[in-house]
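ok, trying the design again with the full structure, not the truncated one.
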């Protein structure tokens, strides 16, 4: 079965940085684009970043452009999200996602809290 497990969240101060990881299994990882989403309390889940099959290109939401880098290691079946210059507005549960045959698969999420 498709299985996604996020990790790396925590409590950070404004201006700090962290790297989230998503370990994937149950599908041919290097055949699919991967995405990171986030959802803050009371808000809709929003797309943060997407990376293509081989890690050659990526797209970012305007809210994180310039501060985030999505990457993947296809030898480890893992996708990463580096977030720099963290802001309180980055506080959310972060999820990784893959679309396979019109079905979206999600991890359990990892909490990122940015507060002084």
């Amino acid at each position: 079965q498709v299985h996604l497990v996020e990790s790396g969240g925590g409590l950070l101060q404004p201006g700090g940085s962290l790297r989230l990881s998503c370990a994937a299994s149950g599908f041919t990882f290097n055949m699919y684009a991967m995405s990171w989403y986030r959802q803050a309390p009371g808000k809709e889940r929003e797309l943060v970043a997407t990376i293509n099959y081989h890690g050659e290109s990526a797209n970012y939401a305007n809210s994180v452009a310039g501060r985030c880098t999505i990457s993947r290691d296809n030898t480890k079946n893992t996708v990463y999200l580096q977030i720099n210059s963290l802001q309180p507005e980055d506080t959310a549960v972060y999820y990784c996602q893959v679309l396979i045959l019109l079905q979206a698969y999600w991890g359990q999420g990892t909490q990122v809290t940015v507060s002084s």
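Keeping the full-length input from now on. Residues 10 and 105 are 23 Å apart (CA to CA).
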